[in-house]
Amino acid sequence: MYTLDQLKSLEAQFGSPMYLFREEDFINNYKEFVACFNKHYTKYQLSYSYKTNYTPYICKLVKSLGGYAEVVSDMECGVALTVGYEPEHIVYNGPFKGELGEKCLLEGGLVNVDNLEELKGVCKLAHEHQDKKIEIGIRVNINIGQSFISRFGIDMDCDDLQKAFDMVSEVENLEVVGLHCHVGQSRTVEAWSNRAKIMLGLADKYFPNKAPKYIDMGSGMFARMEESLAKQFGDNIPTFEDYAAAVAIPFAEHYKHLSQEDKPMLLTEPGTTVINSYIDFIGKVRGIKHIKGRDFVVLNCSKDNLGDICKMKKIPLQIVHVNEEQEILKDAEFTGYTCLEHDVMYPDYNGSLGVGDYVIFGNVGGYSNVSKPPFIFWNSPMIAKKADGSLSVMKKGETFEDIFATYII
Ligand SMILES: Cc1ncc(COP(=O)(O)O)c(C=O)c1O
């Protein structure tokens, strides 16, 4: 919870609005998450999903905590290399790999091939580099009972997966050493038990003589979150311990006969799970309007600062009044600076509010600053609050020049 003095001091130093990253809470959550998996399977490795929030400050922090980088484009891979990752600690996924994908392939990265066309290119690369041994993973398209057909990976339910292994076996210096999956919108423990069962079955089928070097399970878990938000997802949100038990225990059991060296590395790729709850957005009330019997609050920010979560759920909200001048609002919409009718950050607010009050939105760590378009206005600064209470700028507030640098004027 923020106090008025803290908020005034932040505003005096960095302006308004801003993102605030609670570093100590992030680190504690991160360590607890890893410990849950390590407890059951000591060859567990976290690979942080850059797309969720590739702010270099956070990526560096993850690196210092021992996490790998999970990237899906040369842009993201560039961040990983810039913050000091060696390719061997970069997991390169996705259907759109670029030149840095080749660099990772040639320099020991964990590159997971998404489709047969991409695999043809990898085979060609291997032919061109006969002196190198190239190792790859394959993203498999699995069915864990989800309600949609995923477009990613190579289908395990037709000939394509066998075809992929056959293609690789024809190239002497190329080997499949890993399996990868990721299924979105499936965050239940049952979905994770199914993932584990299917992936272990595939590992047995396609690696009959020696276990793969790694099995990467993607992500898709609920983060820890404030009760007000958790309730909107239902009653029983699984804990990290629940997920770890659903995955790491079957892995430990399945590979108990193998030495530590021969056991596959178990990876997961958390994004929202580790970052969501630890970035807040602090805005201010610009005005309060009453139109045809409805209450509207105008803020100095937009839904675009917060990401899609605010369209789907009522995100955690703290109001800090700046003085005694408030009015009582009924079912008020917190609206943004864009000219879109649907720029709503929070619906149905009931309570007191005054112009100038601080409005703090929680749970905006994922798909927020990285998804912010330069629509109508540039983005706000990001500040890290460190464990010792000191503050550090992670991203400067954008300027006219930042947005228009690539336009020819
Ligand atoms: C391949 C892959 N890995 C990891 C993630 C991160 O998942 P989550 O945010 O649920 O942890 C995503 C998200 O879409 C993804 O596509």
> How much is the radius of gyration in Å?
23 Å
Mean pLDDT: 97
Can you identify the CATH superfamily of the largest domain? Alanine racemase
Helix content: 25-40%
Number of helices: 14
Number of domains: 2
CATH architecture heading of the largest domain? Alpha-Beta Barrel
Q: What's the main sheet like? A: 9 strands, mixed
User: In CATH's first tier, which class of the largest domain applies?
Assistant: Alpha Beta
The distinct bound ligands, ions and cofactors come out as: pyridoxal-5'-phosphate
Q: Given the helix and strand composition, which structural class is it? A: alpha/beta
- Low-pLDDT residue intervals, each spanning 5 or more residues: none
Percentage of residues in DSSP E strands: 15-25%
Number of strands: 18
Report, as a whole number of angstroms, the end-to-end distance. Answer: 45 Å
Sum this structure up briefly.
This protein is of the alpha/beta class and 409 residues long. It has 14 helices and 18 strands. It folds into two domains: 4-19 and 278-404, Lyase, Ornithine Decarboxylase, Chain A, domain 1, CATH 2.40.37; 41-270, TIM Barrel.
Outline the secondary-structure elements.
Elements: H1 4-14, E1 18-22, H2 23-40, E2 44-49, H3 56-64, E3 68-71, H4 74-82, E4 90-92, H5 99-106, E5 110-113, H6 116-128, E6 134-141, E7 154-155, H7 160-169, E8 174-180, H8 189-206, E9 214-216, H9 227-230, H10 240-254, E10 265-268, H11 272-275, E11 279-291, E12 294-299, H12 303-306, H13 309-312, E13 317-320, E14 327-335, E15 344-353, E16 358-361, E17 382-385, E18 391-395, H14 400-404
Helix pairs in contact: 2-10, 6-7, 8-10
Bound molecules: pyridoxal-5'-phosphate.
The site of pyridoxal-5'-phosphate (PLP) has 14 residues, from α11.
